[in-house]
Amino acid sequence: MILLGCTGSIGVNTLAVAKRFNIAVEVLVCGKNIKLLNEQIQTHKPKVVVVSDEEDIAKVNHNNVYAGQENTLKIIADASSDLVVNALVGFLGLRPTLKAIECGKKVALANKESLVACGKFIDASKIQPIDSEHFGLWYLLQDRPIKKMIITASGGAFRDWNLDKLKTASLADTQKHPNWSMGQKITIDSATMVNKMFELLEARWLFGEGEYDAIMETQSLIHALIDFKDGSTTAHFAHANMQLPIAYALDEKMDENILAHVDLLKVGSLEFREIKKDRYPIWEIKNDLLKNPNRGVIVNAANEVAIQRFINKEIGFMEISKTIIQAYEKYTDAPKNVDDVFMIDAAIRSSI
Predict the structure, then answer these.
(1) Are 19 and 34 within one domain?
(2) pLDDT in tens, 233-245
(3) Which positions ≥6 away from 244 have C-beta within 8 Å?
(4) Whole-number Å distance between alpha carbons of 217 and 233
(5) By CB atoms within 10 Å of each CB, which of 92, 172, 338, 347 scores lowest?
(6) So what's the pLDDT on residue 267?
(7) Same domain as 141, residue 255
């Protein structure tokens, strides 16, 4: 496989699954965590390594190291592996997704922004989702008429906060996720509920037109549900561990035990909550965005700009959603092709 984003949590879990099932790792691509990268090189012995910055090449314990996105794209094209696991964070993950599909490779996708920004121009048949929610929907699908597909949300760091306190929430506060530890950006996205809106958009591109929604399930044991037209509903239960969807992305015939089963007697009870706009203002544009999914590039660009401003202490936490909504209302153009996606992204970043 080619693994993009090897030192993040999804990358680490992917390598654990690869080691367990003796899957060769041809290429490792990472950002700045050179210490962990060197440990991974020693264990998995890739043929090629790519880092984000040229200045880090000398720090990598490998004799075939490159730097930058252009080299990543070239190596995707040149590598013999037919599977690309894209666990990069942000819009920078889009070009590698497009290149992999162009080269006829299968993409195990954890990079939400690829489909959010460019879903209209990506062949979803080449994508195997490795988000828990989309994996859950895929797992539940059967040949029966569907009324609605539902994904679940944890609620993020502020699901139990007094609403008045949200205006003063700090970056450190956003990182205190109630259920697990993730990267900085995705944990902020979880707190704003942008992450879940992105996942609804992904589901729309992956599974086609239809009705999609999200609810909170506070223990993160149910990841997806499907309402069928006959009145029945199925739910996908599993402990929150990325190794399950990753294992299926690497081998769709998976017949080995990956996780311990959920013991419902130990769980005792589950709690479901509505996602409300007063706590998660971004939900105001959810329905309109699902009706106009090719406008996702606007939301993604505005979100990345707003998050960086929040990190820089230029705006408060609640201003993140406000910035996104303002951009969505101001920029109404939708991309007509892939070039438009990059043009609109750049225009929004330079003007908000």
Answers:
(1) yes
(2) 999 999 988 899 9
(3) 132, 135, 238, 258, 259
(4) 16
(5) 172
(6) 96
(7) yes
pLDDT at 280: 98
CATH assignment at residue 77: 3.40.50.720
Residue 182: the pLDDT is: 79
Q: How far apart are CA 192 and CA 163, in angstroms?
A: 13
Q: What is the count of structural domains for the chain?
A: 3
Is the pTM higher than 0.85? The answer reads yes
Is residue 178 domain-shared with residue 294, that is, in the same domain? yes
Q: Identify whether residues 27 and 79 lie together within a single domain.
A: yes
Residues 6+ apart with CB under 8 A from 81: 1, 2, 24, 26, 27, 105
**CB 190, CB 182: distance < 8 Å:** yes
Are 20 and 135 in the same domain? no
- CA dist., res. 135 & res. 233, Å (int): 17
With vertex at residue 322, the alpha carbon angle to CA 319 and CA 326, rounded to the nearest 5 degrees, is: 140
Amino acid identity at 147? K
For residue 135 the two structure tokens come to 């994996």
* Domain range for 65: 2-129
- Backbone CA torsion sign across 320, 109, 196, 289: positive
Token pair for 181: 């530890």
Q: Which residue has the tokens 């995705």?
A: 186
Alpha-carbon gap, residue 41 to 48, rounded angstroms: 10
Nearest to 15 by CA among 33, 31, 39: 39
**Shared domain check, 246 and 230:** yes
How far apart (Å, rounded) are the C-alpha atoms in residues 283 and 87?
26
Q: What phi and psi values does residue 262 have, to the nearest 5 degrees?
A: -75, 125
- Cα 287 to its chain centre, rounded Å, is 20
Same domain, residue pair 72 and 177: no
